[in-house]
Structure formats: C-alpha cells, structure tokens
Amino acid sequence: MTWSSIIIAGIITYFTRMTMVALVDRDLLGERIKAVLAYVPSAVFPAIIFPGIFINDYGTFIEMNDPKIFGAIIAILVGYFSNNVIATILSGLFSYWIIIFLL
Amino acid sequence: MFTKKQLLTKGLLSVAPHMFSVIPFGIVCGAIGIELGFSPILVYAMSIIIFGGASQIVFLQLLSGGASAVIAITSVGVINSRHLLYGAVLSEYLEKLSFIKKLLISYLVVDQGFAESNKFFKKNKNEPYLHYHLLGSGGTLWIFWQLSTLSGIIVGSFVPEELGLKFAVPLTFIAIVVQDLKKLDHVIVMITCGLSSLLFFDAPFKSYIIISPIIALFVAALVLRLKK
User: Fold this and answer.
1) Tens digit of each residue's pLDDT (9 = 90 or more) over B138-164
2) b/e map A67-90, b = 16+ CB within 10 Å
3) Which of B21, B63, B78, B91 to mutate to test the interface with A (most CBs of A within 10 A)?
4) Within-domain flag for B171
5) Is B50 in contact with B194 (CB distance < 8 Å)?
6) Which of A2, A74, A100, B212 could be stapled to B196 by a disulfide with Cβ–Cβ 3.0 to 4.6 Å?
7) For residue A59, pLDDT beyond 90
8) Number of CB atoms found within 10 A of residue B134's CB
9) Is the ipTM of this complex over 0.90?
10) Residue range(s) defining the domain that contains residue B193
11) Nearest Cβ partner of B103 from A2, A18, A37?
C-alpha cells in the first residue's frame, strides 16, 4: 500500500518535471508569458523562504524575537554584499546558533 | 564556447555551495522517516522514486498521522507542481534536445539546480551544449541527496534536533534570490509571493507552495505592463 503510493507519487512528480520540458511545445506560450516566466525564481522561492522562517514545526507563527528572524536578516545582508552562497548559508546558521546556544 | 566537460564541471561547481544546506536537510529527511517508524528501504526508495525533499517529509508525516494515501499522494503532487514552472523556463534552453534526452534530463530538474543553471543559461544563451550544465548541477544534487538521506537513515537519532538544521533550507534559497533584491520589480514579486505563502499556509494539500507563485506571477505581469 505504502509502496504503491510512493510509486504513484513518484510518477506524478516526474510528470511535473517532464511535462513542460518534453510534452508542451514552447511556441504555444505567447511572448507575454515568456516575459513573465523570467520572474519564476523570484515568484517561487519566497514561498519556501517565508514559511521556513516565520512558521514553526507545529504550523504556527513564530514570535517576532525568534532567532530565525535574526539569522535570516544576517544571511540576507551577508548574501547581498558578498554574493557568496556559502557565506550566506553559514552566516545565517551560525548567527542562529549563537543566539540559541550562547545567549 | 565551452566544451561538454567544462559545462558539466560548471554545473557541478554552481550547486556545490548549496551542499551546506542540501546535506543537512537530506540527513534530517532520512532521520524523520525512520523516526516516524517507516522501514529504511522504503524511506530511502523515496529519494530515488520521488526525489523531492520537502514532499518526501510531508508524505511520510501524513501517512504516519493516519491520512489516506490519496491525500498523501495529492500533497506530493501539489508541492512538486512548482517544477512545471521550472520546466516552462528551462524548455527554452532544452528545445533542441531529442525527445528521449528531454525525458531523461527532466528527472534531474530540482530547485537549486534549476536556479543555478537558469542563471548560467541566461548569460550564455548561444552555447550548443547548455544541457550539460543542468546535467552537472542536477546530477550533483541527485548524488548528494542520495548520500545524505541514506546517512540520515543510518545515523538518524544522533542528529540533535536542537541544531535546527531545517533552517538551512530557507537560507539556501535566500542565497539564490538575494542579488535580485537590487531590482525593484523582483522585490515586489518576492514580497507578494512571501506574504501570500504566509496567508495561504493553511490551505489544503500545502497548496500555498503553488498558489503564492501564481499570485506573484500575476503581479509580475502587472509590473511588466507598468514598466512599458
């Protein structure tokens, strides 16, 4: 039962990856849509970022003084000025750990 | 012009920094599966069959919480529907590939690989072997996802939950979009998406993950119209 569910979920997931690449002819998309698609990263990733920061494991909003907010702000500043992925991730994690373990 | 090997290497290197988030998240993912009481083989098989971090966790959490298989499968489909948007963007660069190659490379379309390869594609539109970059980025992510979920399954309970390793996930995506904060139109689109995701967080089947991008893309269309 669980196995067949995993396989169905896997096939559906594969279709989400493959449909637009292999099945849909790009000429079907108008110029307007193609221009809008340039915003896909900015339109998708905040839906992973915001809940990852502001909502906890139990599905409720965190307090405004939560260390994750501080960690995210540090990561944004470091990322903005360094343009370095490793520095962004580690600065966010370490500033978060400093608050939860040392303060 | 780059050779195939150079593009493969560039793809690999472009996602390498993201391993600081992929590996901890993979370990957490494997560990959660075991913790919820599923068999190690089953938890690991998901990394190959589904190959999508967040959706794998949600799937197991729903099943262990007593939800029906239909609900678990639907949630996976909804969470992963964002790949449709990645595919729509990438199709421009993969157009010339044969159908079989398109079918094969699609399996490797994942968040960070899409993000980094897309950045490269935009600057190098006329390279003949562009798909090797995606092969390098997606392939690297695949290998490390397998290794890290496997380690999570094995070492599982040794990873202290207090570390909050899941926090590495939003950080890795901050690193991807942070430079676009320099452009006002992108900032508007990002804030729209972010606020929508909080607003719709409780919508069924985790659908906030596709509802908010759709809202944000409508706003992007409006912004484009105003810019003209």
Assistant:
1) 999 999 999 999 999 999 767 777 888
2) bbbbbbebbbebbeeeeebebbbb
3) B91
4) no
5) no
6) B212
7) no
8) 27
9) yes
10) 183-228
11) A18
